[in-house]
Amino acid sequence: MKDTKNDDGLIHAYLLDGKGGGRLLNWEEIDAWESSQGVLWAHLSYAAGRTQAWIRERCGFGSLVSDALLAEETRPRATAVGEGLLIALRGINMNPGATPDDMVSVRLWADHARVVSTCQRDLISVADLVESIDRGNGPVDTADFIVTLSSRMVSRMTDSVDAIEDQMADLEDNVLAESQSSLRLELSTLRRQTIAFRRYLAPEREAISSLMAERVPWMLDTHRMRLREVSDKLMRHIEDIDAVRDRAAVTHEELLSRASEQQNKRMYILSLVAAIFMPLGFLTGLLGINVAGIPGAENPYAFMLFIVFLAVVVTGQLVLFKRKRWF
Fold first, then answer.
1. Which residues does 5 contact at the CB level (< 8 Å), separation at least 6?
2. Three-class SS of residue 278?
3. N or C, fewer C-beta in 10 Å, the chain?
4. Sheet order of strands, 22-24 included
């Protein structure tokens, strides 16, 4: 797959043969393309100047579609414009150094004769589609292209969602085994990932549902049935993400409960220690005042007797605490 940051903006383009295969095209062949030749798929980098000029000046899309294809920020959606579909989808970011929840957007215009897609970062689902065309088992028309790309994008989410579920299960198992500070950090990171996934997956399902609802003449009922399967699978991913988010909330509450319990135990122990030493401190302080008349001041055994008396006091306190079941 070519780098999406190439100068001329052309990542790849194919002329589909209607049998699952296709022929690679260059810019000159794209400019010379006519609908009678077959279905065109042009995948472009929207930031390149040549891409912007070609979309705005040569495609005849109009400002609404052109602006949507070249927009830097998009939200998943699907809208019928005439007999074509304007689509924006997001896929898992599997580029090196990226996190999966930093999802990659792809914008598409599809009609009965061509598909024009734009993006800025590599998308593995698009690479899968290219490989399938090269092998001769790719999409045969524009409707098949939309269904296949949507299906591959949702399928690519499965590993990431499963990884989040496995990470959540490990955190639940390690609640007692690891330090709470490290668990809270991992749990916080996981919750942020689930929030990011949920933010994109919900509108993506709405976009796919809109694809099923839009009545364009080149999309058949069989394509809508396949899209329904894609939508159901995406819904399962959303439900799994929601379940992970709920489990993360419960685990977080468990961590807070255990931290509070540990703190209460420490405070309880300190309270018992203070209760034991409070009378001892009172007695030693009372006998330590520098005034005449302190009992036993002239008796050589007074100190040992006082120590024995303090031991009796402590023993009595311990017996009292034990009877009251304070420890």
1. 45, 47, 120
2. helix
3. C
4. 22-24, 10-16, 39-45, 114-119, 104-110, 84-91, 77-81
Q: Are 15 and 38 within 8 A, CB to CB?
A: yes
DSSP string of 140-196, one letter each residue: SSHHHHHHHHHHHHHHHHHHHHHHHHHHHHHHHHTTTTS-HHHHHHHHHHHHHHHHH
Of 249, 257, 234, 101, the closest CA to residue 168 belongs to: 249
DSSP reduced 3-state for 46: coil
How do the domains of the chain map onto residue ranges? 10-257, 289-323
Question: Cα(23)–Cα(134) distance, rounded to whole angstroms?
Answer: 8
Do the beta carbons of residue 24 and residue 14 sit within 8 Å? yes
CATH no., domain 10-257: 3.30.460.20
- Surface-to-core class of residue 144, CB atoms within 10 Å of its CB (0-12 exposed, 13-18 middle, 19+ buried): buried
CA-nearest of 135, 14, 145, 33 to 87 is 145
**pLDDT tens, residue by residue, 281-325:** 888 887 777 777 777 777 788 888 888 988 998 898 888 888 888
* pTM assigned to the model: 0.74
